Amino acid sequence: MLSLEKGVRLPVRLSERRYALSIFGACAFLLIIITLAAKKSTGFQWILSGLTVGSIYALIAMGFSVIFSSTRVINFAQGEFSMLGGMLMYTFNNYAGIPAPYSFILSVLIVTIIGASFERLIIHPLKKPGVITVVLITIGLSIFFRAVAKWIWGTDTLAIRPFSGEKPFRIFGASLVPQSLWIFGFTLFAVILMFIFFNRSLVGKGMRAAAENPEAASLIGVSPSTTSLVAWTIAAALGASAGIIIAPIKFVSFDVGVMLGLKGFASAILGGLGYAPGAVLGGLSLGVVETIIAGVFPSGYKDAVAFLVLIVVLLLRPQGILGRQERLE
pTM for the whole thing? Predict the structure, then answer.
């Protein structure tokens, strides 16, 4: 039997991942077919709406996965990065009158600086902190961000202007607002950018190596400090972007980050925490299932779907659909 050092992960058996993906794909296909057959254009509307919301969950879930793969901790302030992005976008675009493209860049830049500064000023000085310690710190950060947002912007729900009009398109009897196209496009762009970064750049390859084997990566010059900073920077940018592009549809308030963060976390668990493609798959899946449940049952049950999915996945396949199972000896 192969003996491994503590913390080194065994290679994932491809057949196990394919089997899990096949089962999940069959269930998803069956759900879509039943929905379309039973509800026709209404069912198609649910699926489109679910993919729109699911794309946002996917972006937030990728933020969770990037930080977890690099630092082995969960950032429970990830949802608040989305809230701050939306609030700043409202301030720059609606209040200050700055054009939307510049407001978007400014908002993402400020939240990214906040995320990077938090890692450098709070996380980095800690000497080998425990996982629970860092998790509690991120929870405290989340509460702090909400309190500051409530003090600055109040408790009202704020609306951000759509990027390119509000007249919906008609597709097979379903309506699709232009903002959904922006969401789909940006999510695809973010996924491609992440793929290029982690597979083509030296920093990205170093982060992948550190995620696989931190001790071996440090021996070849990969700095855990650098990978942690880059991970927090990426996660903050992804979270802010998600909060901005969904705001014209879902609006924004000081507490919107709570549910976005929890559903992004559930999406990351579903797809495989620490595995970016799994985060995308988990986010899209959760969005579609959640929307279908809200259409069939009273809408109050919608928010319970994420927690039910979280419990079921942790019981049946804790590593998620595409995730790796860690074995320590």
Answer: 0.88
pLDDT tens per residue across all 329 residues of the chain:
333 344 444 444 556 666 677 777 777 778 888 887 877 888 888 899 999 999 999 999 999 999 888 878 889 999 999 999 999 999 999 888 899 999 999 999 999 999 999 999 988 887 777 778 888 899 999 999 999 999 999 888 888 888 887 788 888 888 888 999 999 999 999 999 998 988 888 888 878 777 667 676 677 777 777 888 999 999 999 999 999 999 998 888 999 999 999 999 999 988 888 778 888 988 998 999 888 888 888 777 777 887 888 888 888 887 777 766 654 34
- Note whether residue 119 is domain-resident: yes
Domain at 310, CATH number: 1.10.3470
Residue of 133, 127, 139, 78 whose CA lies nearest to 263:
78
Residue 52 falls within a domain, yes or no?
yes
Exposure of 31 in the CB half-sphere (CA atoms within 13 A) = 18
Residue 162 forms part of a structural domain? yes
How far CA 146 is from CA of 20, 55, 150, 154, 310, in Å, comes to 38, 24, 6, 10, 24
Domain count, the chain: 1
Q: Which domain holds residue 303?
A: 45-316
If we measure between CA atoms, which residue out of 219, 191, 187 comes closest to residue 66? 191
Tokens 């009202």 belong to 156
- Say whether 299 sits in a helix, a strand or coil: helix
